[in-house]
Structure formats: C-alpha cells, structure tokens
Amino acid sequence: MLKKTYLILLFAGILFSCNNDDDLVATCDTPTSISANTVTNTSATISWIDANSAGSYILEYGVSGFTLGTGTLISETNTSTILTGLNANTTYDVYIQTICSETNISMNSDVFSFTTLAPNVVPEFRLNLAELNIYSGDIALMQPSPYAFEYDLNTRLFSDYAHKQRIIALPQGEKMTYDGEGLPLFPDNTVIAKTFYYNLDERDESLGQHIIETRILIKIDGAWETGDYKWNESQTEAVLDPNGSTVPVTWIDDEGESNSINYEIPSDTDCFTCHRVNTDKTPIGPKMRTLNFNVNGTNQLQSLIDSDMLEGLADPSTVSVLPKWDDEDNYTLEERARAYFDINCAHCHIEGGFCEEQSNLRLSFETAFEESSIFESRFSITARIQNVIPNYSMPLIGTTIIHDEGVSLILEYLDSLE
Fold first, then answer.
1. pTM of the predicted structure, to 2 decimals
2. Among residues 42, 126, 331, 336, which is most buried (max CB within 10 A)?
3. Which domains, ranges and CATH numbers included, belong to the chain?
4. Could you tell me if 164 and 214 are in contact, meaning their C-beta atoms sit under 8 angstroms apart?
C-alpha cells in the first residue's frame, strides 16, 4: 500500500514539473513542402518551408538509395540552396533537418527525390559516339536524346537493305526555318545523325540487331561538316572512322533466306561525293516534301511545328509530298520512278552535284521530264543499274549489291517511254 502511494506521489510530482512553462522546450519541426526548381543536367535549386523560422538547416543528398550519413552535407541559412556538379539524367535523394538550437535539431525530413535532365547533345566530332549524347542510356538501344527528333522519309535511299534510324538535334532554344519544299534553314550547331543497322532475323526483331555505322552531319559556323562512326563488335560504342572500312554482315530476310555482304562504310571523301552542292557539303534527306507524311498517325511537319522546332510554316498541307516509290496504290509509275531517282540519284545528278559535268541527267523530282535527259539516257541507265562494276554501275558508291525492287521499277518505267 505504501509503495503504491509513493508511485502516485512521484507521478504527480513529474506532472507538476512538466507544467512549469520555464522548463518547456518547443519541438523543432522538420522542413516541409520540399521541391526542386530550375533543374538542369548538372544542377538543381532545392526549396522548402520551415514552420520554426529557425534560419539554420542541414541538407544531405546523394544518388538515389544512398545511406544517410554517407551523402554530401550542406549547411544553409536560407530555405533554399543550389546543388551543383550533379550527374546528368540521374535521380538524387535529399533529406533536410532544421537546427532550432545547438541542442534542438529536428528529425530528418521524408526523402525527397528529383532527376536531373539529360545531357545536351554535343555538336562536335569527338572520338566516341557516346560523347555526343545523341542517345540516352545504353547507346546500343538507340534511344534518341529527349532533345532530338526522330524522323523518317516517305521515300528512302537504298543502302544494301540496311535499316536506318534518322534524328535531328537542334541547339537548345533554336528552330529550323521553313524555306520552301526542300531543306529548311538549320541553325548553327544542328546535329543530324543516321544510324545503319540490320536485324539479325527480319522475321523476329527481338533477336537483336547488328549496328554498323552512324553518319553525322554538324553545322559549324554556317557550314556542314561530316563524320562517320564505326560500331564495335560488342555494340557498346562507335569510334570516329574518317578513312572508311568494310564490315562483313549476315542477316536472315523475310523469306527465311540467309544473306551475306561486305558492307562498305564510306570515307570522308565518299561522304563529300554525295553530300555536296558545288564546294559545299549539305544534307540530303530531310527535305520538307520528304518529311510531309504521317508517322504513327501524326504528320511529321506538324510534329516539328508543335514541338517548337520549325517556324515559318503554318499548314503542312501547303507542302507537296515526294511520292513513296513502292506505293503502287496511290502513285503512278512515273511518279514512283521519278521519286526513286530523286532520293537515290539526284544528289549527284543536279546542278552543282558530283555528276554535273559527267552527265546530262538531271534527276530531281521537280525537274521537268523534257529537261531531265532521262529519255536520251535510258539505255545507259538500263546498263548501269543492272550491274555492280566499280566506277561504272550506278550509284557509284553507297551500295555493293543490286536493289532488285528498285531496278525492276526503273526498268518498267524506262520501257514505258519507248
């Protein structure tokens, strides 16, 4: 009984002492409403709210999943701080404590996470392709940077049955300018990339790819420069290869047949042969009329406009469309043949092209038939497209085998002229 009474009196004493206001210490509340602002690929501004108005804080951060006590510490007297030196495309965790006094520090806040932006595309010819940042993550997956636009052509250049991925990356805040139905005006530091690859088995793309090369065009100080990157066998990197080389390639086609070729990667000199107008280098493919069709249900020109990458064009329907050479349902034989000539041959057979003085052929789609010399040259064309003879067959470079479907189209068209 005495023991019980003693415990009651002890509890009452403790309760009485806790009601003495002079001895109370206010709880130091943890920061709330943590946010990340002005996030870049290397920095972020972290802000929070402090109900204590303490004016002193400890922030700890690190790559997502780090253990508290092993991160980077920052002492701060404001309710915001700037984190610098961060890695691009990386998620970070942040914890914050409030220091109300030397002996009264809050618990850590709940974890706050943010992700830095992807690295900017680098408009330079560096040794390794990965250094250009045109791809995000594992480059073998060919996932374009979020700053790049992946595009396709309504009618495509033949390159020994290789598949191609095409992307354009503009410098931040810059746009292409519509300049008619040909090439737009590109700002300096534009990067255009085209990667060539083969599916190991056309019947099942999940079996993987063999990536061969990535051709790069960069606009530097108003002029285009070219560079070619050769992929290694392990498909982990591509290295700048100015001299060109030959790569054995084997793949299985849609019919289950095995195909083998010695794929030729062009040298810088070869690139200039095709990508030239007079003495200037120039892109070939991304003309407005060649991009003006739907990809995944959306017009590509409209996508460029909506993405704030193209100015000067309000309505893509005002732009003509280069016919799809293998679309027999919607285009005439002549339209398809002339489109095939345009994408495969016209870059050399135009005024200022490599074959300007060697041939009277003028093969751009907009050239009138009477001015093209196609009829006058029909026998020469027939002979040259059906053979693979160095310095004689057409095209001169860029292919090592005959394009059966394309040759069939051209021969049918030439026969119709007789």
1. 0.84
2. 336
3. 32-115 (2.60.40.10), 120-322 (no CATH), 325-418 (no CATH)
4. no
